[in-house]
Amino acid sequence: MNVILKKLTPFVKRGALFTKQFVHRKPCLMPKRWNGGQIDSYFFVDEERDLNNPDYSEISNEYLGTIAKGHRVLVIQPYIKWGKDKKKDTTRELQLAEAVALVQTLPYWTVVEKLWAPLLSLDRKQFFGKGTLTKIKSLLDSQCNITAVFISVNTLKHEQLLELQKIFKLPVYDRYSLVIHIFRSHAKSPEAKLQVALAELPYIYEKMSEINGQINLLEKRRLFLQSREGQLRNALQKLKTHRESVRTKRKKYGFATVAIVGYTNAGKTSLIKALTGDKKLTPKNYLFATLDTTAHQGVLPSTMKVLYIDTIGFIQDVPETLIEPFVATLEDAMVADIIVHVYDVSHPDCKAQIEHVRKTLKSLSDANKPTIEVANKCDLIEPGNLPKDALGISATETTGIDILRHEIERLILSETGRSIMKMRVESGSEAFAWLYKEATVISAEPDPKNLQFMLLNVIVTDDLLHRFRRFLKSL
Questions:
Q1: Tens place of pLDDT for every residue, the chain, 475 residues?
Q2: End-to-end CA separation in angstroms for the chain
Q3: Which of 345, 385, 395, 458 could form a Cys-Cys staple with 270, CB 3.0–4.6 A?
């Protein structure tokens, strides 16, 4: 049981915000055989109007800010000058670059100015020192076209947020609230919207807990939010149950699964497109392009079919509570047979991103889960700059993809109890047809001693052998 799953305890165990369940699930039969391409992750149908409750929107907008159609943003990257809180695995330049990329991910949001701001502590009421505040205020006064300020810190205290908005006379966002807006913008399926709705609540609860006064209003809001959370977590549990059912059916049909994980915008979807040849996949070059966990069928060199699981990307400096609701679907990846960790080898902050993903995987899954690390975008660096022993690929140019397929196959065979067995079967017989239908036949050639028989190299599991023997007895 992983660390985050242990923390998935609801704030409330009952409550009825809505008069009926906000998402309903229609019966849906899984296909007997998936025949390639993308496989729908979920089989829920939407009742999205309940997610867009106007009473909740009023509260959400107060604490998270409204998602404007566009903003012209001043990006501020705070940094601790010294002490235990100073970051040592990255630089302020790289942190600022990621902060800018986050803002640019939102449609019609543009970065007008950007700067670093030194801090001695994260606990000041006005967050910044007087000199820094004066510098920022002067910049805002001279740049009247700036409409919002993004402070690239995990979360601001509510008191700090109100104080800064009062000083700047503009909306102020921290990383948590900005990432929530990105999630809102990118969430298309009812399941993604459900998980985003849950991800918002810890932030709002924290902000409410920091407010003094207005006890009656706060208590009414807290009860309202607890009731909403109870409904959302109930729906999330149904989603988890559904995902478990899907995984059981995949296992029944003998699919090996490969989770593709990595830092956001490392090229996970592009890699799956290269591995599967699925032209319908349209990778996007921005952060958090993927919020849904989806499965895509591919074929390994032996002709064995495999499912590649695409996942939400990881990112530094956001609270665990922001990703926690996505565990229901991330679990699909964490119980896969093997993991492929893809990283952007051309990114200046590559080492820090790799380490962050490794730590996240350790908290989410079995530390001994077999993993292949893949250096993507190797076409964007000089050949001599590829790290030693790295498996370099380019998902867009398909460089190294065949080597990766062979490595995936080798690891799957060794980790899943599959083996290659030679079988002598009469050509055109029922046993011959059964093996081609139920197993993976790598090769077939006539038996030189008796041309009525074929020599087959077959990938088998203990379960498949058991079923094959039962089938032979039934003939």
A1: 344 333 333 332 322 222 222 233 333 333 333 444 443 443 343 445 556 677 788 888 787 776 667 899 999 999 987 766 677 778 889 899 999 999 998 988 999 999 999 988 888 889 999 999 999 999 999 988 999 999 999 999 988 999 999 999 999 999 999 988 888 888 877 778 888 888 889 888 888 877 666 667 788 888 888 888 888 888 888 877 887 887 777 777 778 899 999 998 899 999 999 999 988 887 776 677 667 778 899 999 988 889 999 888 888 877 777 777 777 667 777 888 999 999 999 999 999 999 999 988 888 766 678 999 999 999 999 888 888 888 999 999 999 999 999 999 999 998 888 888 999 999 999 999 999 998 889 899 999 999 999 999 999 888 889 999 999 999 8
A2: 44
A3: 395
* CB distance 228 to 204 below 8 Å: no
Helix (H) / strand (E) containing 474? helix 462-474
How far is the C-alpha of 67 from the C-alpha of 81, rounded, in Å?
33
Rounded Cα gap, residues 446 and 448, in angstroms = 6
Q: Which of 180, 217, 192 is nearest to 66 (CA)?
A: 180
Cα separation, 274 vs 277, whole angstroms: 5
Q: How far apart are CA 99 and CA 105, in angstroms?
A: 10
By CB neighbour count within 10 A (0-12 exposed, 13-18 middle, 19+ buried), where does 371 fall?
A: middle
State the CB neighbour count (10 A cutoff) for residue 237. Answer: 13
CB 25, CB 166: distance < 8 Å: no
What region does 304 belong to: left with phi over 0, alpha with psi -120 to 50, or beta?
A: beta
Instruction: Report the alpha-carbon distance of residue 39 to residue 242 in Å, rounded.
Output: 14
CB 277 within 8 A of CB 363: no
Place of tokens 């330049």: 93
Q: Which amino acid is at 415?
A: E
User: Which region, left, alpha or beta, applies to residue 313 given φ > 0 means left and ψ of -120 to 50 means alpha?
Assistant: beta
All residues at 6 or more sequence positions from 197 whose CB lies less than 8 Å from its CB, including other chains: 51, 232
Q: Are 23 and 44 in contact (CB under 8 A)?
A: yes
CB contact set of 16 (below 8 Å; sequence gap of 6+): 227, 230, 231
* Structure tokens belonging to residue 115: 């700067």
- The closest alpha carbon to 44, from 221, 245, 335, 214, belongs to 245
- Phi first, then psi: what are they for 228, rounded to 5°? -60, -45
Give all strands of the β-sheet with 419-426 in edge-to-edge order.
419-426, 450-460, 440-447
